[in-house]
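Journal club prep — side note

Before the paper discussion, L.F. wants everyone to see what a predicted structure for a comparable chain looks like in token form. Sequence:
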Amino acid sequence: MPYRGRFAPSPTGPLHFGSLIAALGSYCDARHARGEWLVRIEDVDTPRARAGSASAILRTLEAYGFEWDGEVVRQSARTDLYRAALARLMANDDVYPCTCTRRELADSPVAAAGGAVYPGTCRATHPADAAHLGRFAWRMRVEQAPEITFVDRVQGAQSQRLSRDVGDFVVQRSDGLFAYQLAVVVDDADQGITDVVRGADLLASTPRQILLQRRLGYNTPRHLHLPVAINVAGEKLSKQTRAQPLPSDPLPALLRAWRFLDQRAPPAMPASVTEFWPWAIAHWNPAILPPVRMLPAPAGV
């Protein structure tokens, strides 16, 4: 099957160095394999989206020399697809309505990897009772799910038992918005994504997505989780940790991202972005990517 990858930023602010790492890695991986590279704006969480951010992200990608295939897809325009997927899960009794609030779950057990494990409080609730519950979310049943295993192209063999490490997880929130886990699975299947290249901060959510893919009859793409850039406080670079927007001069930032991923240094400094990309695509080597989940960001980013 021909390679098809994607870059899927959330429009909550401008792109930063952490975003650039994911964009560069996914782009080089796709183009090195002579595949397609799509851009998807992941704005399923509409309250967090900032006006103008999506357009600013696309302008930055263009200024940095990224060229995507096809039209840009926005999750906010795809709710009918998510609703249809949820209906399939409901028909197979894979989900149930949950009225638990965050306060009620505050004392839930915490997994070794962090995060609360849902204790199954509403698991016996039948979907037919949903109309009488008022405000509720839909949760995915995982109690009978086998241990989910997969091999990441950088991070190696991974395994997770969802019933122990996560618990039944939300696929539609109580405010009616669809959860990222369901939206991303539906989008990747609908767009024919064969390879997911993204930050290692999403590694722990991959088993949930694999379970959804199996329950919905979708193919599971190959995965490559890149190391995440962290600041001096050990925090992931993000809008929440006040990561600086990418500079207007793209070439130095691209070279810093390239070095961050331990890729081979060019024999001579490229004079422009136009020179950088053909060389980078030709010399992209996933085998030498750092097999770690976090790395300190370069100074000044």
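L.F.'s comment for the group: The chain is about 30% helix and 15% strand. Keep this in mind when we get to the figures.
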